[in-house]
Structures are given as structure tokens and as C-alpha cells.
Write a structure and sequence with these properties.
The protein starts with a strand and ends with a strand. By secondary structure, it is mostly beta strands. The strands form two sheets. Strands 2, 4, 5, 6, 9, 10 and 11 form a seven-stranded mixed beta sheet that branches. Strands 1-3-8-7 form a four-stranded antiparallel beta sheet, with no helix packed on it. The protein has strands spanning 3-7, 10-13, 18-25, 32-39, 46-51, 58-60, 68-73, 78-83, 92-100, 115-116, 120-125. It is built from no helices and eleven strands.
Length: 126
């Protein structure tokens, strides 16, 4: 069973950048595919992106494609979300999630992931 802890959230101006990290412990990190989701006020949990076990395959929501980049370092048991050119509508609590699978399929639905972090707040000011 893996535990996930997000960090790196904060307040950033529109057009700026932020990098979120999600550190994992308690499991074989390279056996997990990982996803990033976000929950904005009054909104449903939204898929942001996902990455496969090796880092060789990624998937992104249309709303962040070209602005956000997911990467992972299996040696450091950490997955990252690089956020560039952020917009006020990116304001949300960001969660990382893990699913024990080496399947090439990258799920976009939250219920496909078994393990979740506590979230980190990102606020984008206009």
C-alpha cells in the first residue's frame, strides 16, 4: 500500500509557474501509474493528467494541454506536475493518485485510482 504526500502549492499570479510534487512511500513506486486531479470550489473533481509506470506515456486534460507537464522520478519515488502559464481557473486543490498497474492505459476517472494524497492548494490571482 502506498502513501502519497503532495507539496508545492501556493499563491501564484496568472501567467506564472508552479511545480507540484507528490512523494510516495510504502510501495514499489515503479509499479504504479499516477494521476493528478483537482477540485475547485463548486466543481466536480477534474482529471488533470496521468503518467504511466515508466514515465514514457502521459495523458492530459484539454484544459491544461500545452501548459502542464507531468513527470516522475522512480529513483526518488516522486511524481511532478509542472504548471506553466497558469490561469485563475486553475485555482483548486490538487491531488495525486496512484493505481497499482503497469497497463499502458491511463485512466482519467477518479475511481480508477486506489490511493490518494491529502491535496495541496493552488491559488492563481488575476
Amino acid at each position: 500500500q502506498v502513501q502519497l504526500v503532495e507539496s508545492g502549492g501556493g499563491l501564484v499570479q496568472a501567467g506564472g509557474s508552479l511545480r507540484l510534487s507528490c512523494a510516495a512511500s510504502g510501495g514499489t513506486f515503479s509499479m504504479y501509474r499516477l494521476g493528478w486531479f483537482r477540485l475547485g470550489t463548486g466543481k466536480d473533481r477534474e482529471f488533470v493528467g496521468a503518467i504511466n509506470w515508466s514515465g514514457g506515456s502521459t495523458e492530459y486534460a484539454d484544459s491544461v494541454k500545452g501548459r502542464f507537464t507531468i513527470s516522475r522520478d522512480n529513483a526518488k519515488n516522486t511524481v511532478y506536475l509542472e504548471m506553466n502559464n497558469v490561469k485563475p481557473e486553475d485555482t483548486a486543490v490538487y491531488y495525486c493518485a496512484a493505481d497499482w498497474s503497469r497497463s499502458p492505459v491511463l485512466p482519467i476517472k477518479p475511481d480508477a485510482y486506489d490511493y490518494w494524497g491529502q491535496g495541496t492548494q493552488v491559488t492563481v490571482s488575476s
